[in-house]
Amino acid sequence: MAGRFNRGSHLRSLLPAVLLLAPALAVATILVGAFTGAERPAGADGVAPADAATHGDRAHGRGAKTITIGWVGDITPGSQYGLPANGGASLFANVQDTLRAPDLMAGNLEGTLSTGGASKCGAGAANCFAFQAPPANGRALGAAGLDVVNLANNHAFDYGEAGRTQTLGALTAAKVAFTGLPGDVRVLTRRGVRVAFVGFSTYRWTTSMDDEQAVRALIDQAAVLADVVVVFFHAGAEGSDRTGVPVGREWAFGEDRGDSRAFAHMAIDAGADLVLGSGPHVLRGLELYRHRLIAYSLGNLAGWHNFATSGPVLSLSALIKVQMGPHGRFREGELTSLRLDGTGVPHRDHSERAAKLIRRLSYSDFGGRLRISRLADWHQ
Protein backbone atom coordinates (compact mmCIF):
# COMPACT_ATOMS: atom_id res chain seq x y z
CA MET A 1 0.00 0.00 0.00
CA ALA A 2 1.17 3.49 -0.66
CA GLY A 3 0.89 6.20 1.93
CA ARG A 4 2.40 9.57 2.51
CA PHE A 5 4.23 11.23 5.30
CA ASN A 6 3.76 14.93 4.94
CA ARG A 7 4.86 18.01 6.81
CA GLY A 8 3.40 21.48 6.35
CA SER A 9 5.01 24.88 6.19
CA HIS A 10 5.32 24.93 10.00
CA LEU A 11 7.61 22.28 11.44
CA ARG A 12 5.29 21.29 14.25
CA SER A 13 1.88 22.16 12.88
CA LEU A 14 -0.47 19.43 11.83
CA LEU A 15 -1.75 20.23 8.35
CA PRO A 16 -3.77 17.95 6.06
CA ALA A 17 -2.05 16.58 2.98
CA VAL A 18 -3.92 16.28 -0.28
CA LEU A 19 -2.83 13.50 -2.63
CA LEU A 20 -4.16 11.93 -5.78
CA LEU A 21 -5.29 8.36 -5.34
CA ALA A 22 -4.22 5.91 -8.03
CA PRO A 23 -7.00 3.58 -9.18
CA ALA A 24 -7.64 0.72 -6.76
CA LEU A 25 -4.80 1.90 -4.50
CA ALA A 26 -5.52 2.63 -0.84
CA VAL A 27 -3.38 5.41 0.60
CA ALA A 28 -2.33 6.15 4.16
CA THR A 29 -1.02 9.56 5.21
CA ILE A 30 1.73 10.18 7.72
CA LEU A 31 1.62 13.67 9.14
CA VAL A 32 4.18 15.47 11.24
CA GLY A 33 2.99 17.05 14.46
CA ALA A 34 1.19 16.39 17.71
CA PHE A 35 -2.05 14.44 17.54
CA THR A 36 -3.94 17.47 18.81
CA GLY A 37 -2.71 19.47 15.84
CA ALA A 38 -1.66 22.25 18.21
CA GLU A 39 1.36 24.39 17.49
CA ARG A 40 4.23 23.55 19.82
CA PRO A 41 6.88 26.09 20.79
CA ALA A 42 10.42 25.53 19.57
CA GLY A 43 12.35 23.46 22.03
CA ALA A 44 9.26 22.02 23.69
CA ASP A 45 10.68 18.54 23.38
CA GLY A 46 13.71 19.53 25.42
CA VAL A 47 16.18 19.90 22.54
CA ALA A 48 17.26 22.78 20.37
CA PRO A 49 15.76 23.07 16.89
CA ALA A 50 17.48 20.65 14.54
CA ASP A 51 18.70 23.34 12.17
CA ALA A 52 20.68 25.06 14.88
CA ALA A 53 24.23 23.95 15.59
CA THR A 54 24.68 20.45 14.15
CA HIS A 55 22.23 21.04 11.32
CA GLY A 56 23.33 24.53 10.35
CA ASP A 57 23.68 25.64 6.73
CA ARG A 58 26.23 23.57 4.89
CA ALA A 59 28.13 25.82 2.54
CA HIS A 60 27.41 23.76 -0.56
CA GLY A 61 23.81 23.01 0.46
CA ARG A 62 22.34 26.49 0.06
CA GLY A 63 19.60 26.48 -2.52
CA ALA A 64 19.73 22.71 -2.97
CA LYS A 65 16.73 21.09 -4.64
CA THR A 66 14.54 18.55 -2.94
CA ILE A 67 15.39 14.88 -3.33
CA THR A 68 13.57 11.65 -2.52
CA ILE A 69 15.29 8.76 -0.78
CA GLY A 70 13.77 5.28 -0.52
CA TRP A 71 14.42 2.58 2.07
CA VAL A 72 13.30 -1.04 2.31
CA GLY A 73 13.83 -4.06 4.54
CA ASP A 74 16.52 -6.73 4.35
CA ILE A 75 17.42 -8.31 1.00
CA THR A 76 19.00 -11.70 0.32
CA PRO A 77 19.26 -12.34 -3.45
CA GLY A 78 19.88 -16.06 -2.97
CA SER A 79 21.55 -18.49 -0.59
CA GLN A 80 22.06 -22.17 0.17
CA TYR A 81 18.35 -22.27 0.91
CA GLY A 82 17.60 -21.62 -2.75
CA LEU A 83 18.32 -19.38 -5.73
CA PRO A 84 15.56 -17.25 -7.26
CA ALA A 85 14.95 -17.45 -10.99
CA ASN A 86 16.47 -15.11 -13.57
CA GLY A 87 19.55 -14.35 -11.52
CA GLY A 88 17.49 -13.00 -8.66
CA ALA A 89 15.32 -10.74 -10.82
CA SER A 90 12.17 -12.70 -9.96
CA LEU A 91 12.44 -11.47 -6.36
CA PHE A 92 11.64 -7.89 -7.38
CA ALA A 93 9.28 -8.35 -10.33
CA ASN A 94 6.16 -7.29 -8.38
CA VAL A 95 7.66 -4.17 -6.78
CA GLN A 96 10.15 -2.97 -9.37
CA ASP A 97 8.19 0.16 -10.28
CA THR A 98 7.96 1.13 -6.61
CA LEU A 99 11.69 0.58 -6.08
CA ARG A 100 12.51 2.78 -9.05
CA ALA A 101 10.32 5.68 -7.92
CA PRO A 102 12.71 7.50 -5.50
CA ASP A 103 15.66 9.54 -6.74
CA LEU A 104 17.90 7.28 -4.63
CA MET A 105 16.82 3.81 -3.49
CA ALA A 106 18.62 2.08 -0.60
CA GLY A 107 18.39 -1.28 1.14
CA ASN A 108 20.27 -3.59 3.48
CA LEU A 109 22.08 -6.45 1.73
CA GLU A 110 22.01 -9.58 3.89
CA GLY A 111 24.76 -12.01 2.90
CA THR A 112 27.42 -12.14 0.21
CA LEU A 113 27.64 -12.19 -3.56
CA SER A 114 30.43 -14.74 -3.82
CA THR A 115 31.48 -18.29 -4.56
CA GLY A 116 33.55 -20.74 -2.52
CA GLY A 117 35.17 -20.02 0.80
CA ALA A 118 34.42 -21.21 4.29
CA SER A 119 31.11 -20.36 5.91
CA LYS A 120 31.08 -18.78 9.35
CA CYS A 121 28.74 -21.59 10.42
CA GLY A 122 30.71 -24.63 11.43
CA ALA A 123 29.33 -28.15 11.33
CA GLY A 124 26.44 -28.55 13.73
CA ALA A 125 26.26 -24.83 14.57
CA ALA A 126 22.91 -23.89 16.11
CA ASN A 127 21.01 -20.75 15.13
CA CYS A 128 23.66 -19.85 12.58
CA PHE A 129 22.80 -18.69 9.08
CA ALA A 130 25.25 -17.88 6.29
CA PHE A 131 24.00 -16.45 3.01
CA GLN A 132 25.86 -16.68 -0.30
CA ALA A 133 24.43 -15.86 -3.73
CA PRO A 134 26.30 -15.96 -7.05
CA PRO A 135 28.10 -12.67 -7.85
CA ALA A 136 26.00 -12.34 -11.01
CA ASN A 137 22.89 -11.91 -8.84
CA GLY A 138 24.14 -8.45 -7.97
CA ARG A 139 22.85 -7.31 -11.35
CA ALA A 140 19.29 -7.97 -10.17
CA LEU A 141 19.72 -5.37 -7.42
CA GLY A 142 20.66 -2.63 -9.85
CA ALA A 143 18.04 -3.65 -12.39
CA ALA A 144 15.36 -3.51 -9.68
CA GLY A 145 16.24 0.10 -8.90
CA LEU A 146 18.58 -0.12 -5.91
CA ASP A 147 21.26 2.57 -5.98
CA VAL A 148 23.07 1.85 -2.70
CA VAL A 149 23.16 -0.97 -0.16
CA ASN A 150 24.27 -1.14 3.45
CA LEU A 151 26.94 -3.71 4.31
CA ALA A 152 27.21 -2.84 8.00
CA ASN A 153 25.41 -5.94 9.23
CA ASN A 154 25.91 -9.41 10.67
CA HIS A 155 25.90 -11.19 7.28
CA ALA A 156 28.45 -9.14 5.33
CA PHE A 157 31.24 -11.40 6.62
CA ASP A 158 29.42 -14.75 6.28
CA TYR A 159 32.22 -16.04 4.05
CA GLY A 160 35.09 -14.07 5.48
CA GLU A 161 37.26 -11.48 3.80
CA ALA A 162 37.23 -13.33 0.49
CA GLY A 163 33.44 -13.37 0.43
CA ARG A 164 33.23 -9.67 1.22
CA THR A 165 35.83 -8.80 -1.42
CA GLN A 166 33.87 -10.69 -4.06
CA THR A 167 30.70 -8.94 -2.92
CA LEU A 168 32.27 -5.52 -3.40
CA GLY A 169 33.40 -6.51 -6.88
CA ALA A 170 29.96 -7.84 -7.79
CA LEU A 171 28.23 -4.66 -6.60
CA THR A 172 30.71 -2.48 -8.46
CA ALA A 173 30.13 -4.46 -11.65
CA ALA A 174 26.38 -4.06 -11.16
CA LYS A 175 26.78 -0.30 -10.59
CA VAL A 176 25.26 -0.54 -7.13
CA ALA A 177 27.02 1.63 -4.56
CA PHE A 178 27.74 0.34 -1.06
CA THR A 179 28.73 1.60 2.35
CA GLY A 180 29.20 0.19 5.84
CA LEU A 181 32.87 -0.73 5.84
CA PRO A 182 34.91 0.86 8.66
CA GLY A 183 35.44 4.55 7.97
CA ASP A 184 33.52 4.41 4.68
CA VAL A 185 31.52 7.37 3.33
CA ARG A 186 29.71 6.95 0.01
CA VAL A 187 28.47 10.08 -1.80
CA LEU A 188 25.91 9.96 -4.61
CA THR A 189 24.51 12.94 -6.48
CA ARG A 190 21.00 13.22 -7.84
CA ARG A 191 19.22 16.32 -9.16
CA GLY A 192 22.06 18.54 -7.99
CA VAL A 193 21.95 17.25 -4.40
CA ARG A 194 24.91 15.42 -2.89
CA VAL A 195 23.87 12.67 -0.49
CA ALA A 196 26.36 10.94 1.81
CA PHE A 197 25.64 7.43 3.11
CA VAL A 198 27.38 5.85 6.11
CA GLY A 199 26.64 2.55 7.85
CA PHE A 200 27.08 1.29 11.42
CA SER A 201 26.52 -1.91 13.37
CA THR A 202 28.01 -3.85 16.30
CA TYR A 203 30.44 -6.08 14.38
CA ARG A 204 34.20 -5.82 13.98
CA TRP A 205 33.97 -5.45 10.17
CA THR A 206 31.86 -2.29 10.52
CA THR A 207 32.20 1.06 12.23
CA SER A 208 30.84 0.39 15.71
CA MET A 209 27.59 2.11 16.58
CA ASP A 210 28.79 2.06 20.21
CA ASP A 211 31.90 4.14 19.48
CA GLU A 212 30.48 7.64 19.82
CA GLN A 213 33.72 9.34 18.84
CA ALA A 214 33.98 7.29 15.64
CA VAL A 215 30.29 7.79 14.83
CA ARG A 216 30.54 11.54 15.21
CA ALA A 217 33.78 11.72 13.21
CA LEU A 218 32.32 9.76 10.31
CA ILE A 219 29.11 11.82 10.25
CA ASP A 220 31.19 15.01 10.40
CA GLN A 221 33.17 13.80 7.40
CA ALA A 222 29.97 12.99 5.54
CA ALA A 223 28.54 16.44 6.31
CA VAL A 224 31.58 18.12 4.80
CA LEU A 225 31.19 16.12 1.59
CA ALA A 226 27.45 16.32 1.05
CA ASP A 227 24.24 18.32 1.40
CA VAL A 228 22.29 15.47 3.02
CA VAL A 229 23.66 12.82 5.41
CA VAL A 230 21.91 9.44 5.59
CA VAL A 231 22.90 6.98 8.33
CA PHE A 232 22.22 3.24 8.09
CA PHE A 233 22.35 0.99 11.12
CA HIS A 234 21.76 -2.72 11.65
CA ALA A 235 20.72 -3.62 15.17
CA GLY A 236 18.01 -5.05 17.38
CA ALA A 237 16.65 -8.39 18.49
CA GLU A 238 14.80 -10.61 16.04
CA GLY A 239 11.39 -12.25 16.05
CA SER A 240 7.67 -11.69 15.66
CA ASP A 241 7.48 -10.37 19.23
CA ARG A 242 10.18 -7.74 18.66
CA THR A 243 8.19 -5.06 16.90
CA GLY A 244 8.64 -2.59 19.77
CA VAL A 245 11.78 -0.47 20.05
CA PRO A 246 12.93 -0.93 23.66
CA VAL A 247 14.87 1.49 25.79
CA GLY A 248 18.34 0.03 26.22
CA ARG A 249 20.36 -2.72 24.59
CA GLU A 250 19.04 -5.75 22.74
CA TRP A 251 20.41 -9.26 22.37
CA ALA A 252 19.82 -12.08 19.88
CA PHE A 253 21.42 -15.53 19.60
CA GLY A 254 23.97 -14.56 22.22
CA GLU A 255 25.02 -11.41 20.33
CA ASP A 256 24.92 -7.86 21.58
CA ARG A 257 22.67 -6.13 19.05
CA GLY A 258 23.16 -2.57 20.30
CA ASP A 259 20.93 0.21 21.60
CA SER A 260 18.90 1.37 18.61
CA ARG A 261 17.21 4.37 20.26
CA ALA A 262 20.37 5.77 21.76
CA PHE A 263 22.31 5.33 18.54
CA ALA A 264 19.67 6.89 16.30
CA HIS A 265 19.38 9.95 18.52
CA MET A 266 23.16 10.26 18.78
CA ALA A 267 23.47 10.11 14.99
CA ILE A 268 20.99 12.95 14.52
CA ASP A 269 22.60 14.97 17.30
CA ALA A 270 25.89 14.50 15.41
CA GLY A 271 24.42 15.84 12.18
CA ALA A 272 22.57 13.01 10.40
CA ASP A 273 19.50 14.08 8.43
CA LEU A 274 17.86 10.67 7.99
CA VAL A 275 18.46 7.47 10.01
CA LEU A 276 17.42 4.13 8.49
CA GLY A 277 17.53 0.88 10.45
CA SER A 278 17.32 -2.84 9.78
CA GLY A 279 17.94 -6.09 11.61
CA PRO A 280 14.86 -7.22 13.56
CA HIS A 281 13.22 -8.74 10.43
CA VAL A 282 9.89 -7.21 11.49
CA LEU A 283 8.30 -3.82 11.13
CA ARG A 284 9.03 -1.22 13.79
CA GLY A 285 7.75 2.30 14.34
CA LEU A 286 8.81 5.60 12.80
CA GLU A 287 10.09 8.39 15.03
CA LEU A 288 10.49 12.11 14.48
CA TYR A 289 13.46 13.38 16.46
CA ARG A 290 14.66 16.98 16.11
CA HIS A 291 12.64 17.24 12.88
CA ARG A 292 14.57 14.29 11.43
CA LEU A 293 12.99 10.95 10.58
CA ILE A 294 14.11 7.60 12.02
CA ALA A 295 12.88 4.32 10.52
CA TYR A 296 13.91 1.59 12.95
CA SER A 297 13.04 -1.41 10.76
CA LEU A 298 10.96 -2.17 7.68
CA GLY A 299 11.16 -5.93 8.06
CA ASN A 300 12.34 -7.98 5.07
CA LEU A 301 11.99 -6.94 1.46
CA ALA A 302 12.97 -10.14 -0.34
CA GLY A 303 14.77 -13.43 0.25
CA TRP A 304 14.27 -16.77 -1.47
CA HIS A 305 13.17 -19.28 1.19
CA ASN A 306 15.54 -17.85 3.81
CA PHE A 307 13.21 -15.52 5.77
CA ALA A 308 10.41 -16.74 8.02
CA THR A 309 7.13 -15.44 6.59
CA SER A 310 4.47 -17.29 8.57
CA GLY A 311 1.94 -15.49 10.72
CA PRO A 312 0.51 -11.97 10.56
CA VAL A 313 3.73 -10.13 11.45
CA LEU A 314 6.64 -11.87 9.70
CA SER A 315 5.02 -11.59 6.28
CA LEU A 316 4.66 -7.79 6.48
CA SER A 317 7.07 -5.46 4.76
CA ALA A 318 7.14 -1.82 3.71
CA LEU A 319 8.92 0.74 1.59
CA ILE A 320 9.27 4.39 2.49
CA LYS A 321 10.09 7.24 0.12
CA VAL A 322 11.24 10.32 2.02
CA GLN A 323 11.44 13.77 0.48
CA MET A 324 14.32 15.81 1.87
CA GLY A 325 14.38 19.58 1.56
CA PRO A 326 17.31 21.99 1.62
CA HIS A 327 19.89 21.10 4.27
CA GLY A 328 18.33 17.67 4.78
CA ARG A 329 15.08 18.80 6.38
CA PHE A 330 12.30 16.21 6.27
CA ARG A 331 9.40 17.39 4.10
CA GLU A 332 7.08 14.55 3.16
CA GLY A 333 7.06 10.98 1.92
CA GLU A 334 5.18 7.85 1.03
CA LEU A 335 4.81 4.52 2.79
CA THR A 336 4.00 1.49 0.64
CA SER A 337 2.64 -1.62 2.37
CA LEU A 338 4.01 -4.93 1.12
CA ARG A 339 3.59 -8.58 2.05
CA LEU A 340 5.91 -11.53 1.46
CA ASP A 341 4.54 -14.78 0.11
CA GLY A 342 5.76 -18.18 1.33
CA THR A 343 8.82 -18.05 -0.91
CA GLY A 344 9.92 -14.61 0.33
CA VAL A 345 8.82 -12.66 -2.75
CA PRO A 346 7.21 -9.25 -2.01
CA HIS A 347 3.81 -8.13 -3.32
CA ARG A 348 1.83 -4.91 -2.94
CA ASP A 349 -0.63 -5.19 -0.06
CA HIS A 350 -3.79 -3.16 -0.68
CA SER A 351 -5.17 -4.02 2.76
CA GLU A 352 -2.59 -1.65 4.31
CA ARG A 353 -1.60 -4.08 7.07
CA ALA A 354 1.94 -2.76 7.24
CA ALA A 355 0.80 0.86 7.41
CA LYS A 356 -1.68 0.01 10.16
CA LEU A 357 0.96 -1.78 12.22
CA ILE A 358 3.51 1.00 11.76
CA ARG A 359 0.84 3.52 12.79
CA ARG A 360 0.21 1.65 16.03
CA LEU A 361 3.90 1.07 16.79
CA SER A 362 4.88 4.66 16.06
CA TYR A 363 2.30 5.96 18.51
CA SER A 364 2.91 3.38 21.26
CA ASP A 365 6.70 3.72 21.14
CA PHE A 366 7.15 7.40 20.32
CA GLY A 367 3.91 9.21 21.08
CA GLY A 368 2.13 11.73 18.92
CA ARG A 369 4.92 13.27 16.88
CA LEU A 370 3.81 11.36 13.78
CA ARG A 371 0.26 10.69 12.73
CA ILE A 372 -0.67 8.04 10.19
CA SER A 373 -4.21 8.11 8.84
CA ARG A 374 -6.27 7.37 5.77
CA LEU A 375 -6.21 10.09 3.14
CA ALA A 376 -10.01 9.94 3.09
CA ASP A 377 -10.01 11.39 6.61
CA TRP A 378 -8.70 14.73 5.31
CA HIS A 379 -10.14 17.48 3.19
CA GLN A 380 -8.49 20.50 1.64
Q: What keywords describe this structure?
A:
380 residues, alpha/beta, eleven-stranded mixed β-sheet, seven-stranded mixed β-sheet, 22 strands, disordered C terminus, 7 helices
Would you give an account of this structure?
The chain has 380 residues and is an alpha/beta fold. It has one domain: 4-Layer Sandwich (Purple Acid Phosphatase, chain A, domain 2). 18% of the residues lie in helices and 29% in strands. The chain is built from seven helices and 22 strands. The chain has helices at 96-99, 138-144, 160-173, 212-225, 260-270, 311-314, 353-366; strands at residues 2-6, 27-32, 67-76, 104-109, 112-113, 132-133, 148-150, 177-179, 186-190, 193-201, 207-208, 228-234, 251-252, 255-256, 274-278, 286-289, 292-295, 300-303, 316-324, 330-340, 346-348, 370-374. Strands 1, 2, 3, 4, 7, 8, 18, 19, 20, 21 and 22 form an eleven-stranded mixed sheet that branches. Strands 9, 10, 11, 12, 15, 16 and 17 form a seven-stranded mixed sheet that branches. The protein has a two-stranded parallel sheet with strand order 5-6. A hairpin with a 2-residue loop joins strand 9 and strand 10. Residues 8-26, 33-53 and 374-380 have low confidence and may be disordered.
